[in-house]
């Protein structure tokens, strides 16, 4: 899949975000190992901790679509600073990634920084850390 296609999906998702409280839109687009694309946007709630992140929405769509392996994830937000996944989303991405999965941090102009899963969440805990008995 091309970078431009995934940026388009992330941008479309970002522009659909439901953010009446923070007004901070985030979109995410996932390309899976099978070549499918899934996207998600952040959704806020008046009970603040009950909102969901764009990455979590895209992962839920991916699982619903029958995929479980992230090849690339594009996370898009506006502003001067990089809009990276929060700690919880880093762990969610890790669940469905290899250590060399690429996380692309973007704004509307394109990719600003690319990190591997290992760089984004070093010394992470993943499915392979659990014993087969669990």
TrEMBL record:
The lineage of its organism: Bacteria, Pseudomonadati, Pseudomonadota, Gammaproteobacteria, Oceanospirillales. Residues 1-128 form the CMP/dCMP-type deaminase domain. SUPFAM superfamilies: Cytidine deaminase-like (SSF53927). It comes from the Bacteria. Belongs to the cytidine and deoxycytidylate deaminase family. GO terms for molecular function: cytidine deaminase activity. The gene is cdd. Keywords: Hydrolase, Metal-binding, Zinc. It catalyses: cytidine + H2O + H(+) = uridine + NH4(+); 2'-deoxycytidine + H2O + H(+) = 2'-deoxyuridine + NH4(+). This enzyme scavenges exogenous and endogenous cytidine and 2'-deoxycytidine for UMP synthesis. This is Cytidine deaminase. Its EC number is 3.5.4.5. Coiled coil: none annotated. Its cofactor is Zn(2+). It comes from Marinomonas vulgaris.
């Amino acid at each position: 899949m091309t970078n431009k296609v995934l940026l388009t999906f992330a941008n479309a998702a970002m522009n659909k975000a439901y953010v009446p409280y923070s007004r901070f839109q985030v979109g995410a687009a996932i390309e899976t190992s099978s070549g499918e694309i899934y996207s998600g946007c952040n959704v806020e709630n008046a009970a603040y901790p009950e909102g969901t992140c764009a990455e979590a929405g895209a992962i839920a769509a991916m699982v619903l679509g029958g995929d479980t392996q992230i090849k690339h994830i594009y996370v898009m937000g506006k502003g001067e600073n990089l809009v990276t996944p929060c700690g919880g989303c880093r762990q969610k991405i890790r669940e469905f990634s290899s250590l060399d999965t690429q996380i692309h941090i973007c704004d509307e102009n394109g990719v600003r920084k690319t990190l591997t899963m290992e760089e984004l969440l070093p010394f992470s805990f993943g499915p392979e850390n659990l014993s087969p008995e669990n």
